[in-house]
Records
---
Amino acid sequence: MESTRQSKIARLIQKELSEIFRLQTAKLGNVLVSVSTVRVSPDLSIAHAYLSIFPSAQAAKILENINRSTKSVRYELAQKVRFQLRKTPELAFHIDDSLDYIEHIDSLLDMDKKLHPGHDDKEEETAD
């Protein structure tokens, strides 16, 4: 269970990292990096940031570039939160693939509808 302090720090880091990535990706053009979730360890020493990267075909390459520049991102984050946090946590970046998972589930449901047409209509009639 996450404490109130952990969740407040996670929201602060998420907000500031989102701004940092927004400014950096504006230079690249057709790339969008958003911070979907940040989870902070109980001792506040590590922050795991989950990133949604669009287009997802380039996600691995972009995540690799972000991981290479983790120190500079942490420094930039430290400059932004220096009055709220005494010590900036170490950053660990992960790809948030929940949108890909949702798309996969939707495609499976669409396939099921194509294989069993009219199946939903019968359920709705019996529900009335």
---
Amino acid sequence: MSAPVVLITGALTGIGRATALAFGREGARIVVSGRRDDAGVSLVKELRELGAEAGFVRADVRHEDDVQTLVRHTVERFGRLDVAVNNAGTEGKSGPITEQSPESYAATFDTNVLGTILSLKHEMRVMLSQGHGHIVNLSSTFGSRGAAGASMYVASKHAVEGLTKAAALEGAAAGVRVNAVAPGPVETGMLKRVAGGADKIAAMAAAVPARRLGTPEDIAATIVFLASDKANFITGQIIGVNGGKTAL
């Protein structure tokens, strides 16, 4: 097969951006998406400098028309869709569950859960008709654990992991693999917003058995592996990338 065609949502910062660059170095043809035109244009320029064929589509995964257009554009441009990375996500409103509301629920679930559902729906339609494809969803260590003060985020990532397993079972016989990567604390803008200070970030790093935070590149490397033929018998799995944190 020629260079794989890769679609990445939430690609403009953090893990999504690192994943785009990692696939670019592998020679993939890439469509990146997000909600900021300037960052999208800048990322495409970087990818092309790496020698990758790349394009940007502005899309908000909370809106089905945007997702459908994004997937359709990818297939029209490159002829197929080999890999999809559903990275778009938000931390939502922190605080105890007694302070949550329908609005805070929607602010988290519309992106993390509905966005994943819509992405899976349209990506899998293409991949099932092709008879092949690899999808990687982004979860978190909180997808299998609890965390006080982060109820909406925790619940949303539990949902992502359930969706991953259900989609994997639906796609397996047709040659479509679906997995999720569950990072521990990673050096991203989201972590800085959630932690709220250098002392808390240092405490997070100290609590990781590997004694450091993850990097976006750590997560990207795992995603590239899962999307490769080297992982062609792995589906329906949640892969922890957390420096041993869930081994505690």
---
Amino acid sequence: MKSLKIVLAVAIAVSSITFSYANTFDQELRVGIADLNDTEDNFFGVGYQYYFKDVELDHNAWEISSYLQRVDSINLDYLKIDDVSRLQVSAEVFLQNNWVVRPRFSRVADDDESNMRIGTDIGQFIQDNWEVGAGLDYFKSDTRFDYDENDDFLFSIYTRYTTLERNSNTFKPGWDLELQGTVIGEDTSVVASAAYYFSPKFSLYGGVTQVDRDRRDAITAVNLGTNYWFNRSFSINFGLGVDVGGDGLRSLDLLASYRF
């Protein structure tokens, strides 16, 4: 990949930066870059998340502390790759301490086409550390030159289980596991992921995605990565993607997060 050395150099440079930190936060900024195998230009993304009450960090896995404490938030993301741009607004709202709703709206556009997506997930904590749920999304696609319009619905079911404790006086290493199945038209996909937290600030993760397109073509992708918090404000997430049975290394990405 032509930008592999550039991405690694940025990771090394950014990791040397230090910030002041506090025990709580209510806002988060993210900046991400990636080198993708099948594109001439690189991926760039920025994000902002606001939490409606302070999130504490003392004895939690810092990366998913807001989820473990069930803190409501709203999120804004902008992504750009080649001539394609994507804007998404989403939220996570916890109800009565055992329900969660995640509404979302996104728009993807390039020079020839635009796509709109609107939907939501609704989940329930059947146990304190086990969530199950389902999602429904509506897609609409507009082609600017021949004025074709296409729409479709996406249906998904998912489950998430974590061995990490929400309220504890000491941190205990543990797993965060997710599984999701999706159907849109004749296409189906299954995504399984697992992250292991060795300490509040360090984790390794991996995931497998299986996509069946129109019941003819199957694509399997594997993602591996690590997340490390240099202090309670600043983290680096470094990952890579591999196509199984394809061209090998598919992507290399770096995400920096700053909380305050």
---
Amino acid sequence: MRRGHSYESLSYGCIETPPKSDIAKRLNTIYQSIEEKIHQWKPDFMSIEQLFFGRNTTTAGCVWQARGTILLLASQNNLPYYEPKPNQIKMAVCGSGSADKTQIQKMVKRLLNLREIPRPDDAADALAIAVTGLALDSFSRKTGYKNND
């Protein structure tokens, strides 16, 4: 959440699913968990990282399916969404498109005034994506630029 020129994290964490369980059940767990958070926090938009994969097509397929589930929820809840690229996230959080994971984690901690770096690493990544979404939303509101319809 943005308060003036500062940010505050209302909640964060990771949705854990058993790696060897059926993909449909895993996607349903993700769907229900995100849907619950949407109803609990009533966000104005969502921020979902644009992903690029090189070689591991098995992992990529599962991640793309989870991402599709989240995009479905955005549509069902009439939520606009932003899709920042990894280098945009690094730039928004650290001021450099070549920032490393440790730099991003430290800046997320600082930007959100957290006591410690969020764990697991995926939680810190998600918060960085959210902070980038806030920046993109602010830009969108000022300029009228629409990320998507």
